[in-house]
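This follows on from our talk about sequence and fold. Please put the record directly below this note.
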Amino acid sequence: MEFIGSPVNLVNNLGTGVFEFFHEPAQGIIKSPKDFGTGIAKGTRSLVTNTVKGIFGTVHSITGTIGSGLAELSMDPEYIKERQQTMREKPKHAAEGALMGAKELGKGIFKGITGVIEEPIKGAKSEGVGGFFKGIGRGVIGAAVKPAVGVVDFAAQTTQGVSRTATMFQAQHNRRRPARAFGEDGVLEPFSAEKAEGNELMRDLDDEKYEGELYLHHFYLPSPSSKHEQSILLVTNDRIIYKISKTKTSWSEKLRDVEKLDLTEESILLRLKGDRYASIPCPDESERKTIVETLQTVLGQQIAASSA
């Protein structure tokens, strides 16, 4: 799914853009000619930003996956680890993405050339003559693979920068209400304030880490760390997320790993595969029962879908 670039995310963005391209002018024409003109501007802006965000975000996912696969062929654990750490850094905009991409391209070329000399030396130091010849093999392979990874990473970082520029531009023109959510069948649903809010919470969490998933439910709960804050429980079509603030996740567990739900006096206990546990603090008994019933329904649907 990651290789084809999060198609749900692409469809969501394109669907939102197209819908608002027609919806905003239609809403405006009911009020006045001026509002109609404003609606055209808003709809066009939404169509452009969501299209750019969706397409370039998908290209980033594809190139990032290809780059990871190519990097594995280098057979250089240090290089692979260093690349993984670098690729976790996300550009804020297109210019920064191009700069980060250029650095990765230069690094790939440099590592490929120097590896021809360095790999045999490292191999000889660790394994003697046999290691020397192994190092020659790694160096030759790296000379071909690492520059190729650099080219792919340049494309990945640049396209991510463009996508995030669209996101930043969109944030500067906040809509009057959150975007409508898509249903599990990919169809744009009638506006629901609760679903729109939950969908936006999910997208904002952990720097859009879960944006490709479908929002299902969310609950506000008392924060275990502060009387003046709320924690949030989010349920998607793939996982349960408990967060202690609007932007920081406490834990996230896949639905398929949940084996049983238990009620305690102050919380809901999730029994997970591998003898693991996750807790949802919830002092209100009625709220606990509501959450458990909701989770049981979602888990039941997930089991039915996986066995179909």
Notes: The domain at 193-307 is CATH 2.30.29.30 (PH-domain like). The CA atoms of residues 271 and 293 lie 16 Å apart.
